[in-house]
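Model it.
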Amino acid sequence: MDSITTSFSSLLNHNQNNHVSSLPNNNNHKVSFDPKLGGMGSAVDNSKAKIVTGPAGYILEDVPHLTDFIPNLPTYPNPLQDNPAYSVVKQYFVHVDDTVPQKVVVHKDSPRGVHFRRAGPRQKVYFEADEVQAAIVTCGGLCPGLNTVIRELVCGLHHMYGVKRVLGIEGGYRGFYARNTINLTPSSVNNIHKRGGTILGTSRGGHDTNKIVDSIQDRGINQVYIIGGDGTQRGASAIFEEVRRRGLKVSVVGIPKTIDNDIPIIDKSFGFDTAVEEAQRAINAAHVEAESVENGIGVVKLMGRYSGFIAMYATLASRDVDCCLIPESPFYLEGHGGLYEYIEKRLKENGHMVIVIAEGAGQELVSESMQSMSKQDASGNKLLQDVGLWISQKIKDHFAKEKTMSITLKYIDPTYMIRAVPSNASDNVYCTLLAQSAVHGAMAGYTGYTSGLVNGRQTYIPFYRINEKTNHVVITDRMWARLLSSTNQPSFMDPKIVHEDKKEENDTSVNHEIRSLLPPPC
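Modeled.
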């Protein structure tokens, strides 16, 4: 521990006084900026990963700091030490050595692996309350909890650090240069967490890095809090890179928002618990409809463009679902082991069934009739055909043609009802933790990071890790196996394909471990 303390202390001292590409410490540790690890899948190619190595294969993928590109910045005592709310806290501030491992399941001889910096208040801050001009923007689609995050950012800045000037950017990224701003105060945001949507408005697209940073500079903004999904976080990364290139004292902070839970690294995104809970209403309704008639089928389409987490967790929570179809698990309709055969079998056994399908499932089956496959929305997402309507009609047509049994099918699409509701209690707590952690990091001078939960601990994750890939359901994992055992549905998969997927997953994991253990370049 002493050697690690020396390493991080050296790093902090270095950050306040110098800026070089690589910093050797003692014999056991080295701090470096690795251009090869940055910008993986991000909008900016010249991102630099900040890597700290230690004994036994310890890797810290650290986040940028303002002193990396603006030397000799003054520091100030953290006002929390005089805050009555924190007087009962045993340890006010996060220790300089505190990091959180990305993987918690290891073997006795495994390297310590990749870690992220633990979130929380620091002893020294790099902003005085009077100099802070913060801005908050929400981008992309709606999600439960957006207003809660806005509220907690405003209240956290005001009550914890005495910041009085907080601007709300209206209408997403384009609001920086095409819309007015609104002043946000604790009183104006006091009750917004009880409402769905976002009081700031949102939009897709509209990202013009130079215009946005020009607006930030012209308005005197020095803390930017960007709430959005993977595309929004890539935009935030581009903003951070331009801010760094111009040498501005501006902290750029991301707060991950995606109802699909498809952002990597983090345990989950806010709004996901609410979405799963709200999806139960639709599933319950479909079950009531299905069991009330002979050979009744209820079909529910849930969100999940590329990742089927909502469908999977809603199915596991419900216990009324007989079949769950997600983008990660291909299925087929006809022939032995196909969906039609399973539906007929289930109806003969139970007299009814419920099917949950994610919006991105089965797109390869409808691609021939789908003219929108090559079209995209303003965020770059593929425009998908309504697979719920498609599969409902295919099931009706099949049984009408085969005349083996008469069915009654009801289709429910609760998509916009789910994402427009206020967040539940669990998500409200999570939104508070995310927002307060983001504020602590920005005040401590960190920048170019996303605030997120990793293995139950709040962390600061560099943008390039958030932007490098999309989080997917692993169909060779235990959670998907639990779902299959709950629904008793077939996997609809060729065993050879499962074996190839598992091999590819293992190869990817091994390659990432090898990459992590490579010595950083000097």
